[in-house]
Write a structure and sequence with these properties.
The protein is 36% helix and 19% strand. It is built from 11 helices and 14 strands.
Length: 350
């Protein structure tokens, strides 16, 4: 009787072990493999991954980005997206603190866009932003591998990762809300009040001196030539513009901005804002001078970009003088605070 009971116990133990192995094998063979639920958008240019992200860059909030060249949407981790924007928008040889200031501005831009559910300028459904200057330029890790190689790639990626990691979750706020973190390449010596370029007065987008640009930026000054006929065509004028050494007969400045740019001027008797004149002629900035050389109008511009917000070359100049990223952004964005994006994004769906 005891022998039969002992034999039966052995059979039951063996059966239990067999069942345990059957149950565990699928778990063991699938551990570490990709989930069947992919974060990649169908047709995306490359699969979503976190390879190369700084420490703490684990997947969290993702940003659907429309890749304009591939005409596809790709999901990117927020910090991975910020890294790609910094790489696209600011030269990698800039000081680390300038890159960190750019990272905070880039993160602020997309967080504000998400919170406001702003889909303007996006050509397809399923994306919230493009990789162009319509929003913020973005460059993928694959493109950076083509741009750099070997030790240069490793060093540059380390620098980018530091800029993102050391500012992780940090955004710029005014009265508790993400700001319009506008930036541009090169100032004429001053940044511009928002209302002098876009018409709307924004309290933190005030004109401040930026003396670093003239010494550092290769885009500070440029001269172009345009014929009297082409000038009239681009400005939509019906009458010919008089070619005269007396500039007031052809072009005349009516008013200037606090940032020393042209606010309004008349050309051939018609009034234009400095912004209109700049955009119609494709000029680098709204600070310009001119002179006639025969029938050609030579226009010299100072600075590069709209001039509102943070000057990138100015930020680099401040960093070269030992200023930290937080000091840089607080200088160019008047009265703002550096805050965490976590409370604003927590519990939100996008």
């Amino acid at each position: 009787m005891h022998k039969k009971r002992h034999w039966l116990q052995l059979v039951l133990i063996g059966l239990a072990s067999f069942l345990a192995i059957v149950v565990l094998v699928p778990v063991l063979t699938t551990k570490g493999l990709p989930s069947s639920k992919s974060t990649e958008v169908p047709g995306a240019a490359e699969p979503y991954n976190t390879k190369g992200l700084p420490a703490g860059g684990e997947p969290g909030l993702t940003i659907p980005v429309y890749l304009s060249k591939d005409k596809k949407v790709q999901q990117l981790d927020l910090e991975q997206y910020v890294r790609g924007v910094v790489a696209a928008e600011m030269p990698i040889d800039f000081e680390l603190e300038a890159l960190k200031a750019q990272a905070m501005a880039a993160r602020t831009y997309i967080v504000r866009r998400l919170l406001e559910k702003d889909l303007s300028g996006v050509p397809v459904e399923g994306a919230v932003v493009t990789d162009t200057i319509t929003h913020q330029a973005y460059v993928s890790e694959q493109e950076l591998k083509q741009r750099w190689s070997g030790a240069q790639y490793a060093a540059n990626m380390d620098k980018l990762n530091r800029a993102v990691e050391e500012t992780k979750d940090m955004i710029l706020t005014y009265e508790g809300k993400p700001i319009q973190a506008t930036f541009f390449s090169t100032s004429n010596g001053y940044t511009e009040n928002s209302e002098d370029y876009w018409g709307d007065r924004i309290p933190y987008l005030r004109s401040v001196p930026s003396p670093w640009d003239v010494k550092l930026s290769p885009r500070y000054k440029e001269t172009i030539s345009i014929s009297s006929k082409e000038l009239g065509q681009k400005l939509g004028l019906r009458t010919a513009i008089p070619v005269s050494a007396n500039q007031s007969n052809s072009l005349r400045v009516i008013g200037k901005t606090e940032g020393n740019r042209i606010k309004t001027l008349t050309v051939g008797g018609k009034t234009f804002s400095g912004r209109e004149f700049r955009e119609k002629l494709g000029l680098n900035s709204t600070h310009f001078q001119w002179s006639w050389k025969g029938s050609e109008l030579q226009i010299t511009t100072f600075g590069y970009g709209h001039g509102v917000g943070m000057s990138q070359w100015g930020a680099n100049g401040m960093a070269k003088e030992g200023k930290k990223a937080e000091e840089i952004v607080k200088y160019f964005y008047t009265g703002i605070q550096v805050s965490s994006d976590t409370p604003l994004l927590k519990g939100k769906s996008f």
